[in-house]
Structure formats: C-alpha cells, structure tokens
Amino acid sequence: MRPGASGRCGVRVNRNGVGTIPFYGRISSAAMDPIEKKPLYHFRPGASILSLGFLGCNLFCPFCQNWYISQSTQADTRSFSPEEAASAALAAGCSQIAYTYSEPLVHIEYLLDCMKAARERGIANVLVSNGCLQKEAAADILALTDAANIDLKSFSPDTYGRTLGGDLAAVLDFITLAYRMGVHLEITTLIVPGLNDGETELDGISGFLKELSPLIPWHLSAYHPDYRWDAPPTEASGLEKIARRARKDLSYVYTGNIPGETNDTPCPHCGSPLVRRRGYSVNTNGMVLKEHQGKNTYYCTACAQPVPVIRY
C-alpha cells in the first residue's frame, strides 16, 4: 500500500510506512438478535445473541445485501472495547456474542481480543464469515470459536476469483479446519439465479459437506436484487427444488429469506419434529435437555435418542 492508502478491505492503512488498523474496536452496530437470524439452527435454538457489526470486507460481491457497511468505511461507528462487549452481553442476560453483518475477519486483531474476553466470562463466540482466510490465522480464530456459519458462495474457483474477489480453496480449507477443530458448523449459500444455481455446482457443495458430515446444516438463502446485481430474485419454488435435491446427501437443508418459510428440524432417528420454526418464532418442545457424561445433551422427547443440536 502506498503511504496514506488503504487495503482493498478498507480497514488497514499505510501511515508513513507503518501498517495501522484505525478501525480497531469500532463497530457499526450492536443488536440483540434471535440466534436463528445468523442463521444457526442447531446451536442454542431459541436463544438471543448479541450481534456486533463492523465495516469493510475482503470480498467485493456485486450482490452484497449489506454493501453499505461491507463495501465502504463511511458509515457511523462507535468504540466498543472487548471488555465492553462481554459486559454488554452479560448485562442483557445473554451468553453468546456473534461477529457478523459485514466481514468480521478483516478485524481479526479485535476479534481475538474480544473472543478471549468472552471466553473468560463464559460467553460463547459465534463467527458469521465468508471464511476467506489463510490457514495459520484461521487456526488462531477457530480455537476461540464455539459456532460458525460460513458463507460458501459458490463451488466455482472462477466465480470466486473473477466475480467475488476471493479464493474457493481457502474457504473450503477454512470450513474443513473448523469442522476438524470441533467448531459447531453451519453453512449458508445465497442462491443467485444464473450465477451459482446449476445442479452440478450445487451437487458439488452438498457432496463436499457430506464428506465432512451429512449432519452439517446447509442454509439455502433466496437472493434479491441489490447493490450492483439486477438479476431476477430467486423463486421460492426453485429454492425448495434445490433443497429437495440436496437432502439426498444432507440430513438438514433449510431455505431462507422467503415469505412464510417454515423450517422444522426433524429427529434423525424417528423423524419427529425437534424444533418447530415459523420465521423467527421457535418451539423446542420436541427436545429435552439432560446431563450425559458431564455434558448437557438434547434428547428427542418422542424416541429418547440424543440429537445433533448443541446447547453447551
């Protein structure tokens, strides 16, 4: 970077030959959200989560739906130290923090400090990210991450490189590492007509996830025109067709960003509904929490078998 210039993410600046991070601890938003909004469906369902937003991104997706904070650093921010973040969560009676809205990983120094402060206070760390990060840094951040929803935007290296400005291989490595490190993992793909909605490409994603674990939830989100992309919006019927096909490989495929959506979570043993969802309204009466081998584990109320939904 030239003196006075910033990197592509917009949040790292060369000041007189010295790399600086002027947006350390600057957040664009702080809100209490349902955890399902991240989206996380199999981690602490029904819980509220303190969501912290930032500025900037290391990708330049032309259909970004948060472009006003991801593709610019001009939005208003306020200072929020790691200690303040942890205290705010506890004051709200909340035991989880999400790093979200724009790409949090371009603020990795702050994330590492914030995640450590949260861990010390018994607060879970949730990462909502594009996962485009080199392995060494990924290992550092994932060691402090309890749950993550990673955007797997395409299964085409060309789309990642030319259209999004990223690296598919790096994202696949990040997802694989997160799974192997024991992070609770869910994946989201925004289905953009004409870009990433071909059967071969989507089969590639479901096959990749199946090799890790068929129990990894995959969220298929409907696109609508925004920022610099004006293709027609994703049709609900088309999204459901993609979901049905993916369920041949994966146990849990959900659709999102469509009116009137219902996304129940069935028991993998007996098929009874564990969690019923109507939008962000959540009913978890199909599960019961019991202690098993020192851990609190959810069991299906119908068949009494343990289920792949995480509480602690």
Short overview:
The chain has 312 residues and is α/β, with parallel strands linked by helices. The protein contains 8 helices and 17 strands.
Describe the structure.
There is one protein chain. The protein is an alpha/beta fold and 312 residues long. It has 2 domains: 25-263, TIM Barrel (Alpha-Beta Barrel); 265-312, no CATH class. It is 26% helix and 25% strand. It contains 8 helices and 17 strands. The chain has helices spanning 67-70, 82-91, 108-120, 135-142, 157-164, 168-180, 199-212, 236-246; strands spanning 13-15, 18-20, 26-27, 29-34, 48-53, 78-79, 96-100, 124-129, 147-151, 184-191, 218-222, 253-256, 265-266, 273-278, 281-283, 287-292, 295-300. The strands form 5 sheets. The chain has an 8-stranded mixed sheet. Strands 13-14-15 form a 3-stranded antiparallel sheet, with no helix packed on it. Helix 2 crosses helix 3 and helix 4 packs parallel to helix 6 (168-180). The radius of gyration is 19 Å and the shape is globular. The protein starts with 12 loop residues before the first strand and ends in a 12-residue tail after the last strand. The mean pLDDT is 96.
Fold topology:
Elements: E1 13-15, E2 18-20, E3 26-27, E4 29-34, E5 48-53, H1 67-70, E6 78-79, H2 82-91, E7 96-100, H3 108-120, E8 124-129, H4 135-142, E9 147-151, H5 157-164, H6 168-180, E10 184-191, H7 199-212, E11 218-222, H8 236-246, E12 253-256, E13 265-266, E14 273-278, E15 281-283, E16 287-292, E17 295-300
Parallel strand pairs: 5-7, 7-8, 8-9, 9-10, 10-11, 11-12
Antiparallel strand pairs: 1-2, 3-6, 4-5, 13-14, 14-15, 16-17
Helix pairs in contact: 2-3, 4-6
